[in-house]
Amino acid sequence: MKQATRALRALTTKQRGLAAASLLALGCYCQVAVASEALEHGSSLQGGGLDRDAGEHEAHSLQHFNNHHRELCTWQSSYKEPSSYHYAVEKIGYPTEYELLVSKNQYIEDVACPVCGAEHQTVGFVGKNLREEGKCPICQSFNRLRQIAEALLPEAQRIAGRPFGSMKDLALSELAVYNTQCAGPLHTTLLGMPGYACSEYISSELAPGTTVRTTRHEDLQHTSFSNATFDLIISSEVLDHIPRPYQAHKELRRILKPGGSHIFTVPFSPTDLHDQVRASVEGGRLVHHIGPPIYAGDPLHQKGALLFTIFGQEMVDNICLLDYNVTTHRLHVGPHGILGNNAWVFVATKG
User: Fold this and answer.
1) Please, what is the Cα angle at 62 between 34 and 57, to 5 degrees?
2) Tell me: the pLDDT tens digits for 174-202?
3) What structural domains does the chain harbor?
4) pTM value?
5) Residue 40 Cα distances to 8, 13, 56, 84, 294, angstroms
6) Cα distance between residue 202 and residue 305, in whole Å
7) Dihedrals φ, ψ of 122, to 5°?
8) β-strand partners of 306
9) CA–CA gap between residue 272 and residue 217 (Å, rounded)
10) Distance from the CA of 301 to the CA of which of 45, 77, 80, 149 falls in 20 to 30 A?
11) Residues 233, 199 contacting (CB under 8 angstroms)
12) Could you say which residues form the signal peptide (predicted)?
C-alpha cells in the first residue's frame, strides 16, 4: 500500500491520473494524496473564518466496485472533442458571428434562455468579459449561469428519464437539487421546487445547518446533510473560495445520490497542468503565496470572498481520484446566449 502511494506521488499530474485510472480498472486498493500540502491544510472558510480542523492531512481512498465496469476518468477522457465550441468555430474560426455581432452592436437577438425558458429575447453584452455579461431581460441570468443550465439539463433528463426545456421546467419536477448559493437567477428560478435546498457560508462560528435570518449556513467541506440526499448539486465560482476544494468535492460526493451529478464552474486555465494555489491556511493562519490577493464580491462579507485557487488540468484528475466520472464541457451555443471562448463547465457524477 505505502509503496503504491509513494509511487503515485512521484508521478506527474498526467501520469498520476492515468495510473490511478489503471488501478481502478485492475481493482487495486490504494490511497492517493490528491491535493498539495497547502490544500490539505486549510480552513472551512468561504468568507473569512478559520477551520478548527486546519492542519490535518487527508488521503482519499480509491474505491473499486466488483462487477462494475467504470469508465476510466482523467482530464484527457473528460474532455471529449469536438465540443459545441469547436462546432461553432469550425467554419469561420473565432470570433464567431455572435462575437462579431456583440462587437458591433453590443447585443444579440432571438435568444432562448435555458434558465427561464423565455424565447426571442434581445440580450446585451456591454462589457469585455463576455462570461459575466449578457443578462436575460426576463430572469437576469447571464452567460455563465446559462452555461450551468446548458450542462445541467441533460443530467436532469438522464436522472428523471424525461427532458426539461429550461431550469424553470426543472423546478416543476420531484428531483432533489442543492444550490450552494441562496441568491441569483438560478436560486430564484428553483426556489419553489419541492426538493430544492440552498445554503451560504456565513461564519466559521456557526454549526453546519444553522439558519440565520432564513438563510441556511453550510461549510461545503463538512455539511449537515445526510448521505445520498441530492440528485443534482450546483456551484458556480464557489470552490475557488474554499482553502481545501477537494475536501469539498469529497463531501459533495457523500451527499449526492448514486448517479447524481455536481455541475460547477470555477476559474479554470486549460493550458496549465497544475492548480495555481494563490493562498492557503496553514496552522490556522492565512498565507498568501501569490499577490496581490483577489477578492470576489460577496454580499455576506464586506471584504469579499478570497480567491484561493485558479484550477488547471490536474483538477479533473484529482476529482476523478475521488471516484467521480467527470465530463468537461466547452460550450458555445449562440442561440442560448452562450458566447466567448472561455465557457468551461464541469460535471462530476457519482459512480
Assistant:
1) 40
2) 999 999 999 999 999 999 999 999 999 99
3) 2-350 (3.40.50.150)
4) 0.81
5) 17, 17, 7, 35, 21
6) 11
7) -100, 120
8) 295
9) 34
10) 149
11) no
12) 1-35
